[in-house]
Amino acid sequence: MTAGGLWYCSYMISYLDISPEYAGSLIGISSTLSGLTGFITPMIVGALTDKKPTFGQWRIIFAMTIVLLIASAIVYQLFATADKQNWEDECHAKRSSRYRSYLRHIFRIRTKETEKDLEKNE
């Protein structure tokens, strides 16, 4: 493992700490939001350096980057927690299993449970 890959393990485990059942969904949502910067950043840089790219314009771009990084670090330090969230409680588990059964019924997804139910009905 390279030194650059060590940071990946440290924050990826946070998703499992917060909610083991929904870690995949949380990773998907956060990756989508972070991927949007790949579209937004070139548009901002293009708008600021459209006519004549000068050192002053690039200073603005780098200053914006620094401010955003510091602000996100402060927000993370103030509000982030690794405590297990209430998404994992028993009541929510019942609701989510009911929701999953509705989705299986709507999309006709067969599982071992639905196969047993079908055999009982026949």
TrEMBL record:
GO terms for biological process: monoatomic anion transport. Its main location: membrane. GO terms for molecular function: transmembrane transporter activity. It is found in: Membrane. Keywords: Membrane, Transmembrane, Transmembrane helix. It is a multi-pass membrane protein. The chain crosses the membrane at residues 22-48, 60-79. The keyword Hydrolase does not apply. Gene3D superfamilies: MFS general substrate transporter like domains (1.20.1250.20). It comes from the Eukaryota. GO terms for cellular component: membrane. This is Major facilitator superfamily (MFS) profile domain-containing protein. It comes from Larinioides sclopetarius.
